[in-house]
Specification:
Largest sheet: none
Number of helices: 4
Structural class: mainly alpha
Shape: rod-shaped
Order of helices and strands: HHHH
Distance between the termini: 85 Å
Helix content: 40-55%
């Protein structure tokens, strides 16, 4: 004996519920936003630091090639001590 369902598929209790119109407004209220931090903004600005550094490097290259560059041993030792003490 075979039992067939009696139109149970045609009954949908959700079709009688009213739609909530406010859900559409809520979705539009939460849009994606991007905020750039102050540190990132500072990084975007072209600074004179890179220009000054390039000039200093060129000056050091000329001094090394001409043999006029002198190493300050005291300064090197102080910087090495500072480096290893901070580790």
């Amino acid at each position: 004996m075979k039992i067939n369902p009696i139109n149970t598929n045609s009954v949908n209790p959700y079709t009688k519920q009213q739609r909530n119109v406010n859900t559409v407004k809520a979705k539009n209220a939460f849009a994606d936003r991007i905020e750039i931090s102050d540190a990132a903004k500072e990084m975007q600005v072209v600074s004179d630091y890179s220009q000054e550094r390039a000039e200093k490097i060129q000056k050091l290259k000329k001094e090394i090639q001409s043999g006029q560059y002198k190493v300050d041993a005291q300064k090197v030792a102080e910087d090495m001590l500072k480096y290893y003490r901070l580790r």
